[in-house]
Amino acid sequence: MPRPRCVACQRPESHCLCHLVPRLSSATRILILQHPDETRHALNTARLAALGLINSELLIGEHFDDIETHWAGYAPWLLFPGDQARTLEQVKQKHGLSGKPLLVVPDGTWRKARKLLHLNPLVAALPRVSLPSGLSSRYRLRKAPAPGAVSTIEAIVTALNTLEPPTCFDTLLAPFETLIERQIEAMGEDVFAKNHALKGHHH
């Protein structure tokens, strides 16, 4: 029998994270495009981000029809690296002048994100904005494909913190932090002890 799951955060009910999820307002709208494979992943950080941000939307699929209706009335940017990608600071300066920004955030591995852009030319054609280089993820459980790769929720928090100071969006990470701690616990004490022994606790 599968364990009953919370309908909101999709965690097993015994490990529901909803009490840790904030309800934050942002001027920037966040549109997350999630590859269906990611919905089954234990650390489904995109869902936690969508639950915590009032001005956000999570779409699940590979091909999105009528995608442009989701950014009507906004100035959309694709949060994804590219040769012509602007920095978040440049986007911030630009929006001091015109329109409400909307960030389209692909959620999935690099390979799946690229496939998503290939299948959705309107998304691929959006102007791109990239995260600052040198970020490191708090999340050591899933090997990052490249230095500077962070989870979807960390990417969104970094972007909003840069675009909307002095508002700080770090509380969005609270359920994510707890999720990681629980995953470490689930990995077992022996693995944890072995890692600690490597740090050399000598008296």
CATH architecture: 3-Layer(aba) Sandwich
* Strands, total number: 6
* C-alpha-based Rg, rounded: 18 Å
- Elements, N to C (H/E): EHEEEHEHHEHHH
Give the termini separation.
Answer: 49 Å
The number of domains is 1
The coarse silhouette is globular
Protein name: tRNA-uridine aminocarboxypropyltransferase
Family: Belongs to the TDD superfamily. DTWD2 family.
InterPro entries: DTW (IPR005636), DTWD2/TAPT (IPR039262)
Domain DTW: 2-188
Structure, explained:
By secondary structure, the protein is α/β, with parallel strands linked by helices. The protein has one domain: 3-Layer(aba) Sandwich (Alpha/beta knot). The chain is built from 7 helices and 6 strands. It has helices at residues 45-52, 88-95, 110-119, 121-124, 152-163, 174-187, 189-198, and strands at 29-34, 56-60, 75-79, 86-87, 101-107, 128-130. A 6-stranded parallel beta sheet has the order 2-1-5-3-6-4. Helix 1 links the parallel strand 1 and strand 2 (56-60). Helix 6 (174-187) crosses helix 7. The radius of gyration is 18 Å and the shape is globular.
Please supply descriptive tags for the structure shown above.
Alpha/beta knot, single chain, alpha/beta, 203 residues, 6-stranded parallel sheet, 6 strands
